[in-house]
Amino acid sequence: MYSGGNASSLPLVGGKAEPTIKQLSKPGRRASRFPKLDVPEVEISNSALTSIKPTLPEVSEHDLVMHYSRLAHRNFAVDLGFYPLGSCTMKYNPRFADFVASLPTFANSHPSTPSKFTQGNLSILFELEHYLTEITGMDCATFQPPAGASGELTGLLIIKKYLQENNLQHKNQIIVPDSAHGTNPASAKMAGFEVVEVSTDLRGMVNIEDLKDKVNENTAGLMLTNPNTGGLFEENIVQISKVIHDEGGLVYYDGANLNAIVGVCRPGDMGFDIVHSNLHKTFATPHGGGGPGSGPVAVKNFLREYLPGPIVIKKDDIYEWYEPASSIGRMHGYHGNFLVALRALVYMKLLGKEGLDELGSYAVLNARYLSSIVSKVIPLAYDEPCMHEFVASVKNLKKSHKIKAYDVGKALLDRGFHSPTIYFPLIVEEALMFEPTETQTVDTLDDLAATLEIIIQELQETESSFEEYPKNLPVGRPNELIPAKHLTVNWGDFELLEITE
Amino acid sequence: MFVPHSEIDLKKMFEELSIETLDDLFKHLPESLKLDNGLDLEPSLSELEAISYFESKEAINTQNLICFAGGGHYDVYLPHTVKTLTMRPEFMTSYTPYQAEISQGILQILFEYQSLICDLTDMQLANASLYDGATAVAEAISVAINKTKRDEIIMSSGFNPNTKTVVNTLIDQQKFPVHYISLDENYLFPENYEFTEKQAAFVISLPHYEGTAQDLTNLVSKAKEKGLVSICYIDPSMLGILKTPGSMGFDIVVAEGQSMGSSLSFGGPTVGWFATRKDFARLVPGRIIGESRDSKNNKTYVMTLRAREQDIRREKASSNICTNQTLNAVGSTIHLSWLGPQGLQEIGYQAIQKAAYMKSQLIEHGFTISNNTNSLREFLIQTKNDSSQIIEKMGARGFLAGIKYSEKEILTAVTEKRTKIEIDSFIQNLLEVDNV
Hints:
Chain A is an alpha/beta fold. Chain A has helices spanning 61-72, 95-101, 104-108, 119-136, 148-165, 183-190, 208-214, 237-246, 267-270, 279-282, 338-374, 395-401, 405-414, 442-461, 481-486, 493-500, and strands at 140-142, 173-177, 194-198, 219-224, 250-255, 274-277, 297-299, 311-315, 318-322, 390-393, 421-422, 431-434. In chain A, 36% of the residues lie in helices and 10% in strands.
C-alpha cells in the first residue's frame, strides 16, 4: 500500500549520535562578521561592564549549517508524515502563510511603533477578530494570550474580575470535567480558584446529575471543551450552560477541539460566555516543535471591558488601540504572537466562507472514517459517533498479552507514523486517542489502520521484549530516569556524571 | 481547501459510514445549534488574490522606519543563515517532542539552547523557553514565592511599564503585594536599600529599562542575607559585554530573548529565557530537556522532570504553561552559535560606542540626556515639545525615535546596526522637529 502520510522511507535510520555544537567548537573559528565601527571609539566605564568574552561555541558557518541541518534530519514533522495525534490538530500548515509573515513590516515592526505607522498590523488583528468572532459566535476578542493555557488563564481572570465587580467574591469554585486537559485545573489554580471535578457518564459525556450536585452558590464557572476530550459532542450542552448560568456562574469554552465544529455550530450559540481558540491547531499555524502558539480569547459583549488591553478598534477608517475600562491587565509584554495571528488570518482568507463552512464536516468525516476502520482492530472507548477525534483502548490486549498503549505508539514510530496521543483522557484505561484532521487522504487513513493491524499481530506473536521497539530509528527508548535523577540538563553534566560513576 | 478527497474517495468513505451527505455526520447534534446558512464571511481567495490582499495591508504600514526604539525588543541584525535554518520545516512543522525517538533534532537543539543560556549567564539549569520576557519575570516571581513561602515582592521600578502590568496581572496582588522601588537620581537602584525577612524576591533589570546599569553584586548579597531569591532580567544582546548574572550571585535569570534569533515581529512571537540553579529544579515552570542513554547506550535526549508539568500534576503543577516558544528558542540557539564569543561581544560593544557617540552629538546640539552618565546603549532624551508629538513627527521623517518615557522624554536605543550617517541624520531631524 502506498500513502502520502507514511514516512517509513525517511533516512531517520541508524547512524552515530550527532555531536553538540560545543563539541564542534575550536578556538578562533567564527561565522559572524560585522562592519567596522564607524564612530570615534571612546573609553566607556561602568561597574557592570567586563572585557571577559562570553562563553559561546566557536564554529565556522558551514559547520553550523551542516550541524543544524543534520539535526533537522533527525526530526519528524507535519511536512514529513502523518501525526494522528489526538487533541493536537496536526493539520497541514500552508507554506503561503510563511511568505505573508515574512513581508518586511509585518516581520520587522517594533512593537512600540505608534498605531499611526502600523495601520496594516492593526488592520490584520481587526480583520482576524471579525473572522474569529463569527466562527465562534462571540462579539469581541483579544490576541494577547500567546498560547491556549494563557488564554485559559485570561478567561478565568476575566471571570474573577467580573464576579468581584458584581460583589460575588464568594464564588470561588471552577468546575472542570475529569476528562479535561491538565491546563484547565492548572490555570484555574493559578487564577486563585478552587477546582471542583465533575465526572463523566458511561456514554463519555458530562454527568449531568453530578454537575447539578456540584453546582452551588460558590460556583464561579465551568470550563468545557465541546466536543469533549473523548471526541464526543456534549449533546446536553445547552442544558449544561443553563445550570451554570442559573447559579450566576460563567461558562468557559476551551477551544482545543474547535476544529470539529467550525462551520457546523458555534460555542456562542451553545451558551458559552468566553472562548479561547488555539490558532496553532484549528487555524493551521505551525507548531514549531512545541510553540509558538496563539490563544486569542473571545467574549460576549458584556465582558468586553474586562479584556486584557489594548484591543484594536476602528474609528472613521482609522485603526486605534483601545484600553478596556475594567481590564484585567496584560497577558503578554506587547500584542501577543502577532505573526502567528497573521498566519491564521491567511489560512482563513484562503479557506473563505466555502472552506470554513465545511472545515468541521471534513475533520469529522476523516475521524469518523478512521474510527470505523480502526475499531475493527482495537475496540473504541465509547460506542458513540465521534467528532474530530476518537479514543480507542488496548486494555484487553494488556490483560491478554501485556501490550500497553505505549508499546503500540512506539511500534507505530518504526513504521513511519507518529504515535497517537496515549494515556489521555486519563479516565480511559490504556487510551490511544486519534485525530486525523481534514488534510489527510483516505489512503493514509487506510494505511494507518492496516499498520495498526500488523503491529498488534506482531506484538502478540513476538518472543522479544516490547522494550526493543522502536527498532528502526536513530535511537531506541530513552532511559527516562537518568536525567530526572542526575539532572543532566546542561552539556557539562553528563561528563560529570560519567566521571563520578 | 486543503481537503484532499476526490469524488471517488468520498464515495468510499460515505459507504463505510453508511451516510449520504456530510450533514448525516451530525444527526446527533441538537437541531437548534446547527448553522443553517453557514458563516457570514467573505468568499475564499486564491493564493494569487491573497498575495495582493495581504501586500496591500502590509503597504499601509509606514515602510522603512529606522529603528531607534528598544525597551526589551532590539533591532539587532538577524542573519539569513539563522532565519533559514530556523524556518526548516522539520523544525517549524513538528510537534512537542514527547516521542523522543523521532524528535532527537528538536530535543538536541533545546538541550543546546539550555546549555548555551547557562554558559552565558553562569547558571546551571535553563528551561526550554517561556512566552516572552514579561511573562518570564512573572513566572520567576512565582518560583520565588514557592521557594521562600513569603509574600512580599521587591521589584525595581526600572522595568518596561508593560512588564510591570503583566506582573501585576499574573501575580495575585492581594496575596503577594509587589513593591516597586524607584531608581535614584542617577537612575540606579539605591545601593543602600535594606531588605527584610518578609520579602520573597528581589527583581531587577540589567540594564535598567532606562538604559543605565550597575554592578549588582552587593545588592544581591544583601538580599541573600535576608533569604530573598534574587531575579535578574537581562538584555541578551548585551551579554557579550556585561558581567554575568551568575557571577553577581543571582538565583534566577530571565530575559526577553527576541534580540537573539527572532525578528522584531511587532512583539511576538519572541521567547522568554529562564535559567536558575539546580536546587530550584523542581519549581521550574515549563519543559526541560535532559541528556540520557537508550537501551544500546546511545546518547539520547528526552523531556525530563515531567512531574512538575500540568499534563501530569494538573492543579498542582509548577505552572499552567504547555505550548511554549520552541521555534524562537531554536532561533536563539542558532543565532548564538553563529555569533560566537567575538560576535556577541562585538554587537554589545558597537551598540554602546554608537550610543556614546549619539549622546555626545545630542548634547553638542543642545539636547539634554537625563541619564548620560550611567547609561549604555539606551538613554532618555529630553524634548522641548510633547514627546508623543515628536515621535510622530520623527516617524513622518522615517525614524522610529524611541518609546515615550514621560511627557518630555523619549527612551532611545542604539544597536550595532545603526550607522553614523543614520545617527547624524536623526539628530538633524530632531533639531528640526523639536524647536521652540
